[in-house]
């Protein structure tokens, strides 16, 4: 797969399928958190891989495939869905209690963390998702988000600081107020 | 490495494996405690973000999209539509972690859900209509009214009519009525512009192009809705402050297809 771009249709298809197998799960997870809707995420992933296939020859190195796919997905999301204004319905209701089963502590933890993640501003949530789901380095995240690396690291710092504050009601030690975002 | 720099590194990446970071970590029990707490948070974060149920057969469908494209010759994906997802959502929970995944899905739904789901094709249509309105706006004559008979002529040729032209004419001032290539070169639709409360409002409709459901869109200048009307659709775009839903309702009641 490292010898891309491949020259024949067969090789091209094999390389494409290899990339699908390697990355489709992470791409879907990222799409899910980006859109917060399983069906839209699935459509978005299909569009992403279709566009990836269409421009597959532009992928020079297989090692860059994952970041390339995430970049395509973000672009497709912006193109197709960011202008979509869905009617949002808050259904934090009793239906939760029916699903929590025998692990109430775990359920509460998940609920708390889930809310905290969704409560982050997208400027902070986006790099965090890319780091945790995608496993990208600060430099790769900077490239995907078109930011400089310092900005990315500062946003990651703030994202975790906010999560920790929310979850523990404790202010992280002496650094939280000293960071200056630079771009 | 001072405490401030260490904290920034620790929060930015609790799993930082750099030698300088490790050395700084070993030098202070407080730092070790902080990193331990951050790594515990990181573990929970990873569990929550990554434990998402992957749709059944998604991998196969993604591969098939590429295979179908290549079997048709070269890059024919431009005209290829994604393989529809199966509607049997319960089949997606096939992993041993299905219970946890179900829990997470239930959690995600508990906070915010989208009550309607536009398809990718409907979203693409909505975006193309929005772009069309932007592109055409320079042609609008928003200063002078034109007779509703102009709209009637255009609509007749696109197979559309109003139940009562008089009612529409009494309620709204028309400033623009033209055919538009709303769907590329395949079909002609009607594009009307009326004088709204906050500027021009575009009304577009075309028959024989069904959409699955309502799509709402907005950018910095326009807000709009696209709704199905029998086998076609009706689209309304205006200023973000415009009462789009009210206008849409009026036209929805009036619009009929004659062919």
Automatic annotation (TrEMBL), chain A:
Cross-referenced PROSITE patterns: SIGMA70_ECF (PS01063)
Keyword Repressor attributed: no
One Gene Ontology term of the molecular function aspect: sigma factor activity
Keyword Transcription included in the entry's annotation: yes
Residue stretches making up the RNA polymerase sigma-70 region domain: 20-83
Gene3D superfamilies the record matches: 1.10.1740.10, Winged helix-like DNA-binding domain superfamily/Winged helix DNA-binding domain
GO biological process: DNA-templated transcription initiation
UniProt keywords, alphabetically: DNA-binding, Sigma factor, Transcription, Transcription regulation
Pfam families: Sigma70_r2, Sigma70_r4_2
Domain spans labelled RNA polymerase sigma factor 70 region 4 type: 110-163
InterPro entries membership: RNA_pol_sigma-70-like, RNA_pol_sigma-70_dom, RNA_pol_sigma70_ECF_CS, RNA_pol_sigma70_r2, RNA_pol_sigma70_r4_t2, RNA_pol_sigma_r2, RNA_pol_sigma_r3/r4-like, WH-like_DNA-bd_sf
Family recorded in the similarity comment: Belongs to the sigma-70 factor family. ECF subfamily.
Protein name per the record: RNA polymerase sigma factor
TrEMBL record, chain B:
Keywords on record: Membrane, Transmembrane, Transmembrane helix
Protein's UniProt keywords contain Glycosyltransferase: no
Polar residues bias (residue ranges): 1-11, 65-76
Residue intervals passing through the bilayer: 97-114
Residue segments, region Disordered: 1-28, 63-85
A Pfam cross-reference name: DUF3379
Biased composition (Basic and acidic residues): 16-28
InterPro entries in alphabetical order: DUF3379
The keyword Transmembrane belongs to this UniProt entry's keyword annotation: yes
Highest rank taxon of the organism: Bacteria
Protein's name in the database: DUF3379 domain-containing protein
């Amino acid at each position: 797969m490292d010898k891309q771009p491949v020259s024949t249709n067969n090789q091209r298809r094999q390389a494409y399928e290899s990339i699908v197998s390697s990355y489709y799960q992470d791409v879907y997870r990222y799409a899910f958190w980006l859109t917060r809707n399983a069906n839209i995420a699935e459509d978005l992933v299909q569009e992403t891989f279709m566009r990836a296939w269409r421009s597959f020859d532009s992928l020079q190195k297989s090692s860059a495939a994952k970041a390339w796919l995430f970049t395509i997905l973000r672009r497709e999301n912006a193109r197709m869905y960011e202008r979509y204004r869905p009617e949002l319905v808050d259904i934090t209701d009793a239906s939760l209690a029916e699903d929590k089963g025998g692990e109430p502590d775990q359920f509460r933890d998940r609920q708390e963390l889930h809310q905290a993640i969704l409560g982050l501003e997208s400027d902070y949530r986006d790099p965090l998702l890319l780091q945790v789901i995608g496993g990208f380095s600060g430099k790769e995240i900077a490239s995907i988000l078109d930011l400089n690396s310092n900005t990315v690291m500062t946003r990651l710092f703030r994202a975790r600081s906010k999560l920790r504050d929310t979850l523990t009601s404790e202010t992280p030690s002496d650094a939280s107020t000293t960071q200056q975002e630079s771009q | 490495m001072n405490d401030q720099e260490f904290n920034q590194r620790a929060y930015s990446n609790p799993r930082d494996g750099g030698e300088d970071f490790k050395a700084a970590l070993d030098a202070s029990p407080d730092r070790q405690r902080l990193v331990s707490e951050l790594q515990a948070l990181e573990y929970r974060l990873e569990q929550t973000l990554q434990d998402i149920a992957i749709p059944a057969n998604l991998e196969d469908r993604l591969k098939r999209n590429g295979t179908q494209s290549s079997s048709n010759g070269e890059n024919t994906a431009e005209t290829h539509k994604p393989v529809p997802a199966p509607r049997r959502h319960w089949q997606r929970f096939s992993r041993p972690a299905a219970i946890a995944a179900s829990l997470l899905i239930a959690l995600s739904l508990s906070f915010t859900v989208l009550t309607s789901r536009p398809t990718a094709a409907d979203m693409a249509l909505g975006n193309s209509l929005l772009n069309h309105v932007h592109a055409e706006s320079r042609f609008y004559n928003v200063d002078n009214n034109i007779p509703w008979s102009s709209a009637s002529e255009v609509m007749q040729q696109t197979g559309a009519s109003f139940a009562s032209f008089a009612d529409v004419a009494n309620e709204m001032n028309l400033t623009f009525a033209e055919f538009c290539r709303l769907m590329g070169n395949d079909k002609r639709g009607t594009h009307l512009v009326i004088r709204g409360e906050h500027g021009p409002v575009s009304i577009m409709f075309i028959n024989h192009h069904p959409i699955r459901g309502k799509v709402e869109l907005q950018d910095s200048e326009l807000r709009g809705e696209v709704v199905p009307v029998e086998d076609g659709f009706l689209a309304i775009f205006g200023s973000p402050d415009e009462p789009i839903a009210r206008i849409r309702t009026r036209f929805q009641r009036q619009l009929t297809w004659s062919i």
